Every structure is written in C-alpha cells, then in structure tokens.
Amino acid sequence: MIEIIALTKNKTIETGLTMEDWKKGTYEWYWIDFNAPDDKEVDYLRNPLQFHPLSIEDCLHNLQRPKIDYFDEYTFFVTHSLEAKTYAKEELNLFVGDNYIVSFHKKPSIEVQYVAKKLLGDKSPAKWSQFTVLYELLDHLVDNYIPIIYEIEDFLNEIDENTDNKSMEVLLDDLYETRHRLLSVRHTVVPMRDLLYTLLNTKKLTAVSNKREYYSDIYDHLLKLTEVIESNREMTADIRDSYLSYNAHQSNRIMQILTVITTIFMPLSFLVGLYGMNFQYMPELAWKYGYFTLLGIMATIAVCMFLFFKRKGWFK
Amino acid sequence: MIEIIALTKNKTIETGLTMEDWKKGTYEWYWIDFNAPDDKEVDYLRNPLQFHPLSIEDCLHNLQRPKIDYFDEYTFFVTHSLEAKTYAKEELNLFVGDNYIVSFHKKPSIEVQYVAKKLLGDKSPAKWSQFTVLYELLDHLVDNYIPIIYEIEDFLNEIDENTDNKSMEVLLDDLYETRHRLLSVRHTVVPMRDLLYTLLNTKKLTAVSNKREYYSDIYDHLLKLTEVIESNREMTADIRDSYLSYNAHQSNRIMQILTVITTIFMPLSFLVGLYGMNFQYMPELAWKYGYFTLLGIMATIAVCMFLFFKRKGWFK
Amino acid sequence: MIEIIALTKNKTIETGLTMEDWKKGTYEWYWIDFNAPDDKEVDYLRNPLQFHPLSIEDCLHNLQRPKIDYFDEYTFFVTHSLEAKTYAKEELNLFVGDNYIVSFHKKPSIEVQYVAKKLLGDKSPAKWSQFTVLYELLDHLVDNYIPIIYEIEDFLNEIDENTDNKSMEVLLDDLYETRHRLLSVRHTVVPMRDLLYTLLNTKKLTAVSNKREYYSDIYDHLLKLTEVIESNREMTADIRDSYLSYNAHQSNRIMQILTVITTIFMPLSFLVGLYGMNFQYMPELAWKYGYFTLLGIMATIAVCMFLFFKRKGWFK
Amino acid sequence: MIEIIALTKNKTIETGLTMEDWKKGTYEWYWIDFNAPDDKEVDYLRNPLQFHPLSIEDCLHNLQRPKIDYFDEYTFFVTHSLEAKTYAKEELNLFVGDNYIVSFHKKPSIEVQYVAKKLLGDKSPAKWSQFTVLYELLDHLVDNYIPIIYEIEDFLNEIDENTDNKSMEVLLDDLYETRHRLLSVRHTVVPMRDLLYTLLNTKKLTAVSNKREYYSDIYDHLLKLTEVIESNREMTADIRDSYLSYNAHQSNRIMQILTVITTIFMPLSFLVGLYGMNFQYMPELAWKYGYFTLLGIMATIAVCMFLFFKRKGWFK
Amino acid sequence: MIEIIALTKNKTIETGLTMEDWKKGTYEWYWIDFNAPDDKEVDYLRNPLQFHPLSIEDCLHNLQRPKIDYFDEYTFFVTHSLEAKTYAKEELNLFVGDNYIVSFHKKPSIEVQYVAKKLLGDKSPAKWSQFTVLYELLDHLVDNYIPIIYEIEDFLNEIDENTDNKSMEVLLDDLYETRHRLLSVRHTVVPMRDLLYTLLNTKKLTAVSNKREYYSDIYDHLLKLTEVIESNREMTADIRDSYLSYNAHQSNRIMQILTVITTIFMPLSFLVGLYGMNFQYMPELAWKYGYFTLLGIMATIAVCMFLFFKRKGWFK
Question: The CATH number of C250-311 is which of 1.20.58.340, 3.30.9.10, 3.10.180.10, 2.40.50.140?
C-alpha cells in the first residue's frame, strides 16, 4: 500500500494521492510511504522514482545493518525498529532527497503511523519539511527502544532478587534468555548509534547540521542505551559467576556431609560385621564384657572422627 | 523552591530575590537555583528564561547520562552526584550563559548548598563569576565521589583479609555486592570523566580554557577514580577466581578422603559379611585359625591400600 | 590452463586467445585468467607480463592474507574464497592494470567462471571494463560467504534448541566445532573487510572511487558478516557458560540424592549390623520387645534425617 | 629538611644553603630538595617559591597519579617510586622552571640521594642543568622498577616449576599474591609510561626535545616493563586455568575410583548379607555346594563389572 | 670476532679486513659484523665508530624490545631472532648509516651468516648497498619465525586430534606448554611487527621508502604471523573450555552411576542386615515364606528405583 502526503506550494497538506496522480515538480515537498508494498508497487522505486539499483536491492533484502549511503540525488537510510514483544527487528528504509522523503517498510510500522498522524494533526504543517519527518521518525524509533531495554533490565533485576522464589533451573534459563535478548537488542542499538554518529558528523546534510541539537539528543539516548545494555550484560555475567562460586561452595558442603557420615559409619559397620562372623573359634565372642567393650571402642572412634572433622573446620 | 544570588553592578551580593523581582539585564551576573521545583517553578525555565525545549526536557526526565550540550545562548550540563549511603545518582543540571548560571535539581543538593554558602561567606565576592560557581560545583561534586569509592575499596580489602572471620556464603555475597556497586558507580564516574575531557578540549568556553589547570585537576581526579574502580573490579574477579581454584582443590581433598575410606573399608566389610553367612557347609569357619588368618589378610589389604594411596600422593 | 577474454578496439569480445596470439597493445582491455596453471604457464607472469617478483611469489605461496599492494604499473590483490562444504580457503590473486586484469588461482574458481559467463552473456559488453570484472569478482566472492556463515548460524540455533534431542556429548562436540568454524571463517572475513576498507579509502584507484557506492555495498556486507560471526562466537560462549552453570547445579542435585540416601541408611545399617553380632552376652537380644523397639528407633532416625534435609531445602 | 644545591655564576657548586640564604636571581641554576618537610618548610612552596596552589595541594595529598601539569612559570611532575620490599608507592613531585628544579617527597628518597651524590661527585658540574637532574631522577626512578618487576617474574617462574614442592594451597595463595602485586605495580608503571609519552611528544619543553633519545630510552624501558607485567598477568591466568582443568580431570579420576569400588562391592556385600539372614527356611543354605556356587557367582559379577569399566576406558 | 665486508670504490668486494686496516672514508660502503665480541672489540663501537652511548648500552644489555632509534648519524635497530628448538630470543642490533651497516650480536647468528654468504656469492655485488643487507637480514630473520610458529600450530592440531591417544594429563600439560610458547613467541613477533610498521611509515629513511614493497612484504608476513598466534591462543582456550565442559558433564555421569548403585543397594543391604539380626523374637524369621516374600519386596524396590532414575533421564 502506498500513501502520499504532500505540502502544496500554497502550504496546505494534501493526502490520498496515488502514484498516478503524483507529479514530481508540483509540491513544496512530499512524503511517499511504501507500507508492505506488492511487487507492482515496489516497481515505483525504479520508475518513476529512479532510485539507485543498490538502494532498491537493500530495501528488498533483509541482510542490512543500519547505515547511511550518500547518493548524488538523495541520502539513503537503513534503520531498524524493535518489536516490543518478540524483540524482532524490522527494517525501515528512508530515501531523503531535495524535496521529498520516501519511507519503505515490509510490515506496517507504528513509527510511520505515529509521525503521519502527528503531521496531519499539526495546525501549522508549513513548519514541517522532509527533514522534520526524518527527525520525527528516528526519534520515535529510538524512543520505542527504551521501554524494551528497560523491560529486559527489570526482568534481570527480578532474577537478581528472585522474589518469586523460582527454582535454580528456571533462574539459569532466565539468565541465559536475558543474555540472548541483550545480544539481540545490541545488534540494533549499536549500529543505530553509529548511524547517528555519522549523521551528526557529516557535512553533506546541512538540514541536519542546522538542527544538530535534536539529532544529538537522539544520539545521547542511543549512547545511554548502549551503556545500559553493556552494563546489563556484565551484570548477567556477574550473577552467573557468583552463582558458580556459590554452587562450588555448596558442592563442597554437601560432600563434606557425605564424607563425615561415611568416614564415621564405615569403620563401625566393619566392626559390627566382624563380630557377626560365624567362625567357630573367635575368643572375643565368648568374653562376657566383649559386647560392652566393643560399644565403648566404637563410641570412642565416632567421637574421635567427629573431633577430627571439627578441628578441620568442616562444621563451621 | 527557587533561590537567586546576584552580583549587582556595584559588586555587592544580593540574595532573597524572587523570580518576579528578577530582571534580566540589571546584574553583573546571577545564579538561579531550582531546588526541587514545583510545576509552576519549572515553567520559569521556559519563560522568562527561554531555555531550549530539549534542555528543559533533559532536566525533567531521568534518563540522562552526564553530557555537555552547546546552544547559542548557553551551555547545558547534565552532571551526576552520588549519594553517600545508597550510591544513588542524582542529576544536577546546569545552564551556563553570558552572565548567569542556572542550576536545577529535583532533590536538595548538598553540593549546591556548600557552594552557595562558600560564595555568600566570601569576603571578596566580586572575584567570583558564574564560571567560579560552575567550577566549584563540579569540583565539589567530584570530591564527594572520592570517599564513596574509597569506602567500597575498604570494604573489598576487608573481604580480602576477612578479619571478621565471616562464613564463605557471606563473603561471596559481599563480593557480588561489591562488584554491583562498582558497576553502578562506574556509570557515573566514566561519563563525568568524558564530560570533563570534552570541557578541557573545547574551544567554545574561553572562561574554562583560561582556568584550564583547575578543570584539569578535576579531570585528574576522575581519571584516578576510574582507575581505582577498574582495578577493584579486577581484584574482585581475582578473589573470586582464586576462591574457585581453592574450592576445586578443597573439593578434591574431600573426595580423596571419601575415596580412601570407602576403598579400604568396602572390601573388608565384604569379607566380614562373607564369613557371616549361614551356609551349612563353609569349611573355613570350622578351621581353628580361620578367624586370625582372616584378620591377618584384612590387615594386609588395609595396609596395601593405604600404601597405594600414599604413593599416589593423596596424603601430601 | 589460461583463458583470455579481450575487448577489441571495435568493442567486440574476443575469446579463445592463447598467450602466443595475445599482443599487448591491440585491445581496449583484456582479462587473462590463470586457472590452476602449470609451471610453464606460471612463467608467463614473469614474461611477457612482467609482474613484480614479490607479487609472483605471493601467488605461488599459500601464506598470504587478503591484502592490496600498489605497484607503479598495477594493483595487486590477494583475496580468499570460501569453499561451501569444507570451509577451506582458496586464494584468488588479481593484478589490475591500466587496461587489463589478470586473475590467478591454483584451483578452479566458481567465482571466475560465474563472472566470465556473465561477461560473455552480456549484450553490451562494451560497458564492461577490467574494473567491472574486479567488482563482479569481489562481489561474487563475498556473496558466496553469506550462505556459509548463515549455515553455521543455523547449526548453532539447532544446538541451542536441540530439537533432535542429541546427547550432551554430541552437543558439546558440535559447539566446539562451531567455534572452530567461526574462528576459521573469521580469518577470511576480517582481512577481506580490511581490504575493502583500504580500497574504499584509497585515492590511487579513481575507477573505484567513481563507483564508491558499489564497493561500499560489498564493505557493508562484510561488516554485517563480521558482526554475525562475533555475535555467534559470543552466543557459543553463552551457551557453554550456561551449560556449565546448569551442570554445576545438576551436579549438586545428584550429590544431594547420594548424600541423603547415604546419611539415612548408613546409621540404620550399622544398627542392624550391631544386633547381628554373635557375642554370647548381648542383653537386648534376649528382650522380647527388642526387635520392635529397634524398628521404632530406626524409623525415628530415618524420619528425623529426612526432616533435617527437608528443612535444609534439599527437596525443593 | 630542605637541601639546596646551586651552581653559581662562576660555575662552581654551592651546597649547605638554607632557604634564608637563598636569593632568587643569583645562581646559574639551583635544586631545592624538600625531604620529608615539616609544616613550616612546606610554607616555602607558597612563599618565596610562589608555586600554584593546585600544585602545592597535589604535593600534600596522596591521591595523585603520575602526571605532568604545565604552568606558565614551571612544569609540575608527579612521579612514583616503588619501594623494593613492600611494593609501596612513594610520590616524588618535581617543579622544573627556567633555572631551577624543586623536588618534594614526604619520605627520604633513595633516587634523590643517588642523583645528588652523582652531581656533587661529578668533576665537571658545569655540564649539568636542572634538566640533567630531571632526567637522572626519572631514569633512576624507572631503573629501580626493573629489579622489582623481575623479582615478581622470578617468583612466578618458581610457582610454575614448583621446585620447592610446595603444597597446592600455598601455590594458589602465591599465585593470587602475584596477581595482586602485578596489579599494584601496574598502577605505577602504566601512568609513568603515559607521562613519558606525553613528555616525549610535548613541544613545551625544548630541553627535553633536544635530548629526546635519552627520554625515549626511559620510555622504552617502561614499555618493556608494561609488556612484562601484562604477560605475567596472562601467565598467572594460564597457570590458574591450567590448574583448574587439571583439577577437574583429577576430580573425575578420584570419582571413578570411588565409583568402581562402590559398584563392585555393593552388590557383593548385598549378596553376602542375603545369606547371612536368619530365616528358618532358606533352601540355598542347606545345599552343600551353596557356598562355592555363590563364590563363583560373586567372582563373575566382579569380573564383569571390572570389564565393563575397562571398556568404558576408566582405567586408562 | 669482527668481520668486515666492504665494497671498494672500484665496485669490488673486499673481505678479511681488520678494524686496524679499516679506514673510514675509503669504501663505497662497508659492513662490520660484531660476532660475540670480547670487551676489547666492544670498545670499537665507542672508538673509532663513535656510536651514541645509549645505543652501545642497548647492545650490551638484554632488556631490549625490538625498536628503532633515529640518531643524526645513523639509525639504530634492535631486532630479535628466534632459536628454532628452544624458542629463545637472541638480539641482533643494527646500526645503519650513510655508507655502512654495523651488526652486533652476542651469539653467532645464522641470519648474518646466511646474508654474508649470499652477498659474497653474488656475481654482481655492486648492486648491493647497506640497505640491501638490512632488508636481507630483516627478511631472513622473519622467515625464520615462520617454521617455528607453524610447528607450534602443528603441535596444537595434534593435541586437538590426539591421534597418539595421549592421556588427558599429558594433553593438558601440552596445552599449557603451547599457550606458554605462543605467549613467548608473541613477545618477539608483535614488537617486530610494530618496528616494521614504523619503518614503513617513517620519512627519515628514503632508501626504505624507495623499496617500500619489499618491507611491506615483511610486514605482511608479521601481520599474518600475529594473526596465527592470536588465533592459536584462542583455539587453545577453546580446547580447554571445551574440555572443562566435557569434564563437568563426565563428572555428572560418573556421579549418576555412583548414586544409582548406592540408592538401589543401600536399602537392600539394610533389609538383609535387618533379617540377619539375632533377636530371639523376630516373627518374620519363623514364617515359612518369609525369605521368598523378602526377595520379592527387594526385587520390587530395585525395579522401582531403576524406573525412577530412568524417568529422570539418567540412563540417556
């Protein structure tokens, strides 16, 4: 589906145009949005829009990382939006030219909807230009990252505090899941940060340089998000390492119990087994105090063993 | 609450002004402090102070990392103070213009109090400018980091030496807690260091360049603190890894004891069990020296086992 | 085998030339392909082609990493192709001069075949130059990396989900194998990325600068692939660490079972052994309720032990 | 204590001066050494020496890392010496001006003593300048690091070879100690290296640029030492990781022994227990060959178990 | 021992000169080789050769890392050769001046021998200069690293495949040894790479710039070797981590066997012990089917236990 919003020379907004209506030179500026276009619609990118084959290819394939490409006639942006629930990435491609912006996305984009609505609802649309649309799209895109990353952080804090008293298996799975999500989200945030950095330092887009503080603001958000991601990844590693240390310690405690019990009872069991033998000639068995003497010896062994382990510090 | 301190053209300090009294051009320079302002007071930022919407937004949201933004009329600083007990971060935002400094903080700031007191107590206030206030605030802010970081270091040294003879579980928790705190504090110190670096190398603030040695001094402190933080994080990792190695070794020792005991007594118990059987025809039982021969055999087995493990080095 | 494709001054393609036919100055431009050449053919590099001894040496030895060398007469490229099944690297060496490109490879190259076919099949071959061949070769080379790296990624995802229910030994082997492959592939992709970066930023090849967007596109692919490789290596480490944590936890659970069983039954076995002894004077044996009393005591011990471990949280 | 060495205009060395004798303009150049000064002596820094309050503060506090500060009148150095036995850091502060050097240290400094002795013992002191003193102090300072770092390296080699046959506990403690020392020493060497790098690349001190090869030599030493420290830290990590692997393997071997013994003897003990029961009707007991048959069965079980574990490779 | 090779003004090679014969200005260029010189010979560096004291000191001490020092009269190189069997480093110091090269090494150097032989055997020695000697020495030095590093790589591959069926202890030792060797070799290769990089980018040695492709070739080799070293170190870490995971898994399997055996036989042994007691009144013993009932109960217990563990997945 293609939607066109154009500002006429009389500074009024015109909508509901089709590609057939649209004529190149007649508007102050215009915004063409390719929303999940079919093959015929994609063809408009080639003709009449005449974009470079490489940009068109980038729109159609999914291999892209966020980037800027400068062409003589326009600047081409590949950006990524994050879907709030699945953390899935969606490409939003932008062509920004002298008096137009073309947005291209394979699935409906809430960012595009939001900005279109804002533009159409604005009382003084004449203040807008294609660069305002660009800024609003980038700003809204990045703003949408924030709740996602903070949700991951909250999830991590939950793991750390474990108020739900989850079992260790579940916690370890959650931890692994969190690392996985952070890794995935980082692959969007870091190249977007680099994109904004390039944008801020380029000399090719004067419209951007003139509004430097606005783009700088988006860049600051991305910088902050990158730090949050890195710090959360470090924290997951800390939690896991801390768990490993704790587990190793726990493991030793368990083995100490096992060893104490075994060490005390094995010799005793041997002794009682010894006097359970059926040899015809075993002098101790006939001795009247044999039984009590043996009980005494066994008690002594048990106490000695116990004291030995106590002195080794195993009961601390 | 808003407090205004102004130096009049006659070089005297005037305090207790309200935003209504205050008129833009009548002072040599002035300092407006927004201390936990209410909504009406926040509005002064927009009017009459006329700050850029982006800066005002940065004041009101908490997402910011320390940074500098240059606007035509003023320079905007986001800085962080650290609360001594909870390691909580508080934003202190500063607008520094031609003849004013505006500070904005959502909670009372001990740094602002300290500097205001120092200014009001100074006998020659005419020597001060808005940049002196800026320097004093930054300097005091960073000075307040130092005891916090050294407290963490002391806590870590305590863990290392463990003079309180804490149990291993407590130590591992403390270690994890320390890493957590260091991570948290680093998120304030590193961006502040970058802020100072930017400030030192900018050419936009000549008042700063002229007092380079003073700002350089703050930067040196932040550099040192960053190193202390990094080195303490490395040390926590060292302690944990060292603990893991020690624990693995300990674990082997415990299992060696268990194995020695089991290996010696299991065959012996089997033997005594064997001659405890009630078969009617067991020739050994009838033999007069059967019992003593068996005792001899069992002693031999035990000694051999013992020597075997001794030669393997298990008793070292 | 040597194959020569030349564009004559009349803008027609000529093929099937031999090195003997070939005369230097008579073509618009030409492409000489050394496909698994024998020693005599290799000699053509020295004479009549007159390449620098160092370049020729680089062709013949296998020690090379992807690189560009600038000589007065030509630019020399060492590039690597990846074989889809074995992940083996093959060198493809290119000499690009004023009006020629010479490709040299010790084994048949599917990339060279593909580009030659494309050139010969093109209806307007006059549009091609030696730089078109260079671009097509590099582009196709890098395009061939993509399925290989994505195959590794798929394999890793399979390990992560383990839908085939493979045993842990197999999974660990697979994981190690994946890391190994990623390491190996990275050794091709990273220097190729650096090569493209150099190519993009050099001022020596104007034909490349004029088509910057095309080479930039290859570079973007390599950048993306590098990120995919790094992120997959991180993910393998995450999986392994997660496995280690899980295993340590599992290990404790097993030992807890062992310890509980041992701790409950060892004292009981001792007791029953005790009353299995054959001492002539053991008063308890003669007591009528001895047996039932003992059963009661043993049940009490077992229940207490059980409750002790339950309170320790071992059955959670 | 303050000691002054001055070269008079007549090119003779004068010593034993006091701050009262000393007059600013009368010497070719002079060296004032503040050796563990008392409060009154510290005041001389302010008056008559007139150093900047920030430099004086840096002298008095201990928070400093090695650094250079350029002031209009002089250059201020903070350097660290290492004490050979305790690895303790001592600050040595230097003020180098047009015709003077002032050294300041809170404890007696063997480096200052050494250089003073060398200067006083020199037959042609006229060749010296304050920069010669600076170079000699830095050179000697860094030379003193070398035996300390090599001593740590030797200690590490001892751990690696363990010729003294120390127990594992002691080795692990030693390893941890070594890492700790390396961390501590690195905090001196790395900032000193950065200081020298700054010194080499500054354009403000022509006397240093003219003797570049000398300072470059000190820098090379620091570079080498940094490498030695890093490589030793890597080696400690290698030793520890290697120990962990070895330990894990050892752990498995021990458990294999335990498991083999348990698995062989537990069923046998059960069997002999079985026929030790006192049931009145147990047909096997009455059978003449019962005992020998059981012995045969038990031998078979033991051999089978043994072969089972042998085939599993547990005895390799 | 000192050997001098000189090219006379008549373009002929002269050898067998002594330092006494040698006169500074009479040769086109000359090469003086100090091969394991004695103290008297070392003195020639000072006089008549007049090298800078710092360079001479660098020759005599062993603390040096590969580096270049530029002096007015000459360029001083410290390079390292690797001994093939022991991986020991040997310093080869070079002084390259206007019309001479001086090489200095404390032990006989196979690189120097090789280059001297090549020069003396060359039919047109007039083509050589001192820079040809420099290039040949560097090239040969680096060529000698290659087999050493590839030998380590082969050793690592052997460990990985373990075709010799070595025991785990030996493999772990080999792995540690390999890491150690790689660390040691890296300390030669990395600074040599930096040296070549400096050499390639300097503007002080026009003779080098003119032959840039040759030095660039050496640099490429060093770059490749660095990568091989790093990648092999990563691979050793991978093997070790993989071993640790595998071992942890193995450990669990062993403990599972132990636990299964213990859990099944401990209750059974208890039961048979129970009925081996000698209480006078134990009703079960007198019951005719007591024995067979007990056998049935015990079989049931064993089967239940077995099924319990089977369902837990312990036999997978």
Answer: 1.20.58.340
